[in-house]
C-alpha cells in the first residue's frame, strides 16, 4: 500500500521533503514535511493537505531545546472517501507541528486552516516551520508513527544540475542559502540532481540516509563521487564530510522546491559567511561521520 499526494495538493506548498529528517517516521519516505512558506520569516499558518473528519487531537512532549517550545501536537484526520489524496478508504492522516484550532468531529477540506505552526523540540535549529504528514492504514493504530505507509508524489520533480558553487543569498545562525542551482521553471517542483539525473532529498550527511527520486538500485553520485547507494528511491549515505570553502560543515539540506529562489542550503553552525560571499561545497570521504539527531 502507498498513498499518493496529487499535484493539486502539493502545489499549495513552496517546498517539501520526504527524507530530510532523522526520525523513523521518514524512513523509506513514509512521511512528508510540507513548508507553507519559505525564507527568513518563520511561517505561522498551517493549511491542511488532506480532507476528512478530525478524529482526535492531543499534545505530546517534545525534546527540550532552547529555541523551541516544550509541547508538540498530533492531529488525526480520517480521509474522506472522495479525498484528492489517493488512499484506501479508512486511511488516517497523522499531522504534527501544528497547535490545533480544530477538534474531534470537525471536518476539514484541503487548504483549510488546521491552526498555528509550532516550533517544537523535534526541530533541528536550521529547519523551517512545516506541517509533518504521514498516513496509517485503516486497521493500524493511528497514534503510532512506526509502520506508516510510503508516500508517492503525484508529479515528477525536475533535476537541477549543480557544480557545488554559488553565492550566499541568505544567512541564518546555523546555515547559509546559496543562489545556485537556479530554478529554470518556477512553479514546478525541483531539486538538486545527482550525477545520474535523480533528484536528491534529505540531510547529506548529517542524517544517516535520504532519497533519490526517480531512482533505481545502485550508486548515487554528486560532484563526480559516490555519496550513497540507492535501493529504489531510498539511499544510505556513504561516510563523507561536507566542506564549504574548505571549512567543515554539518551537511547539505536537500529538498524539493517550486519557488524561483531555489538555492542549495548548507548547514554550517557558527559560520562566518555573509551575503554575497562566494562558496564552493566539496565532499571528502571520512571514517568519522557526524550524525545529528
From TrEMBL:
Q: What's the protein here called?
A: Peptidase M23 domain-containing protein
Span of domain DUF8155: 4-152, 159-283
Q: Which InterPro entries match?
A: DUF8155_C, DUF8155_N
> Which Pfam families does its entry note?
DUF8155, DUF8155_C
Amino acid at each position: 500500500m502507498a498513498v499518493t499526494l496529487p499535484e493539486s495538493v502539493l502545489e499549495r506548498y513552496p517546498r517539501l521533503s520526504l527524507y530530510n529528517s532523522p526520525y523513523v517516521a521518514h524512513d523509506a519516505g513514509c512521511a512528508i514535511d510540507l513548508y507553507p512558506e519559505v525564507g527568513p520569516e518563520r511561517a505561522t499558518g498551517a493549511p491542511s493537505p488532506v480532507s476528512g473528519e478530525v478524529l482526535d487531537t492531543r499534545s505530546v512532549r517534545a525534546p527540550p531545546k532552547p529555541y523551541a517550545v516544550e509541547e508538540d501536537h498530533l492531529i488525526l484526520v480520517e480521509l474522506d472517501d472522495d479525498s484528492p489524496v489517493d488512499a484506501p478508504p479508512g486511511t488516517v492522516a497523522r499531522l504534527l507541528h501544528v497547535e490545533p484550532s480544530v477538534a474531534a468531529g470537525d471536518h476539514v477540506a484541503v487548504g483549510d486552516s488546521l491552526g498555528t505552526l509550532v516550533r517544537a523540540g523535534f526541530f533541528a535549529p536550521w529547519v523551517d516551520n512545516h506541517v509533518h504528514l504521514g498516513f496509517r492504514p485503516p486497521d493500524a493504530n493511528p497514534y503510532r508513527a512506526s509502520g506508516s505507509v510510503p508516500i508517492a508524489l503525484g508529479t515528477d520533480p525536475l533535476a537541477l544540475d549543480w557544480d557545488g558553487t554559488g553565492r550566499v543569498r541568505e544567512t541564518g545562525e546555523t546555515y547559509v542559502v546559496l543562489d545556485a542551482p537556479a530554478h529554470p521553471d518556477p512553479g514546478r517542483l525541483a531539486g538538486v540532481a545527482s550525477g545520474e539525473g535523480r533528484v536528491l532529498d534529505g540531510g547529506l550527511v548529517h542524517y544517516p540516509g535520504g532519497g533519490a527520486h526517480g531512482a533505481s538500485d545502485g550508486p548515487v553520485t554528486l560532484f563526480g563521487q559516490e555519496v550513497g547507494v540507492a535501493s529504489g528511491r531510498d539511499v544510505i549515505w556513504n561516510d563523507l564530510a561536507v566542506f564549504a570553502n574548505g571549512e567543515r560543515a554539518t551537511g547539505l539540506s536537500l529538498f524539493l522546491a517550486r519557488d524561483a529562489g531555489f538555492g542549495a542550503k548548507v548547514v554550517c553552525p557558527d559560520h562566518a559567511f555573509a551575503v554575497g560571499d562566494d562558496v564552493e561545497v566539496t565532499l571528502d570521504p571520512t571514517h568519522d561521520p557526524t550524525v545529528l539527531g
